[in-house]
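Sample 3 of the quickstart, ligand (6S)-5,6,7,8-tetrahydrofolate:
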Amino acid sequence: MLIIGERINTSRKAMAPAVAARDADFIRAEAKAQVEAGATLIDVNCGTFMAEEPELLAWLVETVQGAVEVPVCLDSPNPAALENALPRHKGRAMINSITAEKERWEKVLPLVLTYNTRVIALTMDDRGMPETAEERLKVAARLVENLVREGVKEDDIFIDPLVRPVSTGNQYAMVVYETIRRVREEFPRVHTVCGLSNVSFGLPARKLINQAFLVQTMAAGLDAVILDPLDKRLMSLLYAGELLLGRDEYAAGYLSAFREGKLEA
Ligand code: THG
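Result:
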């Protein structure tokens, strides 16, 4: 399981002032804590800063990579911000994200190819976010076929079925499970990813819903996830879930998480 730590995001109350003040110590501490807790990539998102985003995204990439040895997931729809930050990234970055929207596709694809990145592809196009799994699968198929035709390896593609709050539609989690299953059936070498926390917007005790959602998306075949790795219960469920899915031979990952004090029963 690829674990993408979501905490360096200026939509979080604690993060915006730290980024505004270029508080590198704060960013380094957030990056280290997430990697220590199991993150295998660090997501960075400073989209709330608008005009300053290109400069800040590059600064975040350098600051994070000055503290930890993992790749960064550049979370921005803004091609200018991606273009400014990518040359400063060491090793292979992940772009979060491309879509089938014409303009975004045309501007982000060259960056994926030039910088040989991994890429998250959201199942949306110029008509918006499809309601049904069937329609999301069609958009996913178009994205995969077009990316592969352009030379992107299937192993570098992460389809994100886009999570909507269950408080706004009672089938929205089900649509995600179904899309994950269908993508895995049709494109077994392509990965699937989602951000967990959108599912619980507008409801109390959100962590509980996010935890149940992690387990159910994993059972559907999710193999990468954007989450807060400092939620110890969530990470515990991830280790237990990997074991139960037969992805953790001899329970090695589960046992070492236990020995490191990372499991909360
Ligand atoms: N898919 C992809 N990328 C994504 C998402 C996705 N990037 C952004 C988002 N969704 C995932 N990242 C976060 C980061 C932080 C929070 C939620 C998702 C978060 N939110 C608190 C809240 O909503 O209440 C903020 C609380 C605070 O102010 O600290 O922490 O789906 N590809």
